[in-house]
């Protein structure tokens, strides 16, 4: 359920995305808010500027949260973002321990507005293989 407070913070994420365009960056913006609605951090997409395919605002904020917030605080934190997080960012959000994401545009809506946004090739993956060799460093690390 989206509350009036959620709408206010989501509008701020959209403002961040609009500002990114004025800087020559892609139109995506995000912020993290604590349980009381205090904005903890903001970011926008800098993929082109940084020549870094991982410079999505959601990923930057997930990394920030994992580094700066204790697990209980992260779990009470909400990310507000102008577009639904991509698979890369969604994985980082889960790993960072954030408790909630509120997005404006869905991936389907984004693709309808910009069909190139959905043009991602699939990558072939083979495995698992070499279990005995691969498990040795895992077991050594987690037994320590």
Automatic annotation (TrEMBL):
CDD domains: nucleoside_deaminase. It comes from the Bacteria. InterPro entries: CMP_dCMP_dom, Cytidine_deaminase-like. Residues 4-121 form the CMP/dCMP-type deaminase domain. This is Nucleoside deaminase. It comes from Streptomyces roseoviridis.
């Amino acid at each position: 359920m989206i509350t009036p407070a959620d709408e206010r913070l989501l509008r701020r994420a959209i403002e961040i995305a609009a500002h990114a365009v004025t800087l020559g960056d892609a139109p995506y913006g995000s912020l993290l808010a604590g349980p009381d609605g205090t904005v903890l951090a903001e970011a926008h997409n800098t993929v082109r500027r940084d020549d870094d395919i991982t410079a999505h605002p959601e990923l930057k904020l997930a990394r920030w949260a994992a580094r700066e917030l204790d697990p209980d605080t992260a779990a009470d934190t909400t990310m507000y973002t102008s577009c639904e997080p991509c698979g890369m960012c969604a994985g980082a959000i889960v790993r960072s321990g954030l408790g909630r994401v509120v997005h404006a545009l869905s991936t389907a809506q984004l693709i309808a507005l910009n069909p190139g946004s959905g043009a991602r090739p699939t990558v072939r993956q083979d495995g698992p293989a070499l279990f005995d060799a691969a498990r040795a460093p895992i077991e050594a690390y987690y037994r320590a």
